[in-house]
Amino acid sequence: MTSPGSGPVGSGRHASLSEFRARVHDWCGTHVPANWRAGQTGVSDAEFAAFQQWWFGQLRSAGWAVPHWPAEWGGGLSVAEQAVLYSELAAADAPRLVLHFVAIHHAAATLLAAGTDEQKQRHLPAIAGGQTWAQGFSEPEAGSDLAALRTTARRHGQGYVVNGQKLWASGAAHADWCLLLARTDPDAPKRKGISYFLLDMRGPGVEVRPIRNAVGEWHFCEIFLTDVEIPATSLIGPENGGWRVAQETLGAERGLTMLELAERLGNAGFRWLVQACSSAGALQDSLVASRLAVFEAEIAALRSLTARLVLGHEAGPVGPADASIVKLYYSELLQRMTDFGTEVGGLPAHLPLAKPASSGWESGAWLLDFIGSWEWTIPGGSSEIQRTIIAERGLGLPRG
What we know:
Elements: H1 15-31, H2 36-39, H3 45-62, H4 79-91, H5 101-114, H6 117-128, E1 133-136, E2 152-156, E3 159-166, E4 177-183, E5 194-200, E6 206-211, E7 220-231, E8 235-236, H7 242-279, H8 286-315, H9 322-344, H10 366-377, H11 383-394
Parallel strand pairs: 1-4
Antiparallel strand pairs: 2-3, 3-7, 4-5, 5-8, 6-7
Helix pairs in contact: 1-4, 4-7, 5-6, 5-7, 7-8, 7-9, 8-9, 9-10, 9-11
């Protein structure tokens, strides 16, 4: 079986990558907190946020909090180096930056691709310093069909007045800012009347209500916007051009987020799965061994797909369906692995009543992980939506 820490690229063919891997490995040995999973199990929301900020600061001090950003903004690692970094963090079972995910990935990608110089100067250093963001896209009747959103932004003086509601906004209870899509032209075709804004979550008229999910966590939130004033300087891209900004920046960025997620699933996730089979005394069962071999092959395929997407993104625009292929493959593989862990783990896999915060969905609390894995096959475009994108944009099949 593949050794922990092996990855799609950066496997040591070059001395510099070998040295970098050794440096990250040594750093993890002294900085990844021992027994952090036990310490993060059953903690309060405030304790989780404090731990996440502390861990972000540790990575920032090492220069690895935003490795995928351009060098002038504090990043500059090559794709090969990023793969090495994420594989070593995964092998060391380091905490995940759950709280900062939208900020360092989606918000940064949007600003770098479509933001003004002033917007970049204001927000990128703040994000690198620990500022947190949420994503205000989905609405009660605009989930899979995001273009049906009804939140409005009406031009008023030197800015806009926003009214509406957003749903499934991950981490919004802790967010300083929000990526917001709102309708600025109600008479235009639905994809052509949407604008993209940066919303200050601490401003008047913004109300956040956490939603308890199926595993008892408060990760998701509703955002209610009542006469919220947003200055015109917080508009990203042209007015009524928000749909294109969202598709181009976040679609391309999805590949970079998958680089870390693939390594997490291939290291911590697969290791927990093997341990669950061992604890159940099932490793000698030929059917179990066969399933583990299939999962290992699927993980190798996921890493290869992810590496190809990220390397392609570094070279230029990626294919119109490439990000959807990787998202679909990852989310359904995660679901199959956690389902199998729940099945083979027996009664002990059903007993944990809480899983470690800061762990993502590869925590080893199999039943809770399996329930949580459904988050990946629904938000961000359900599996059905991803298949439609692959069929129409990737394969050129006709609609209908």
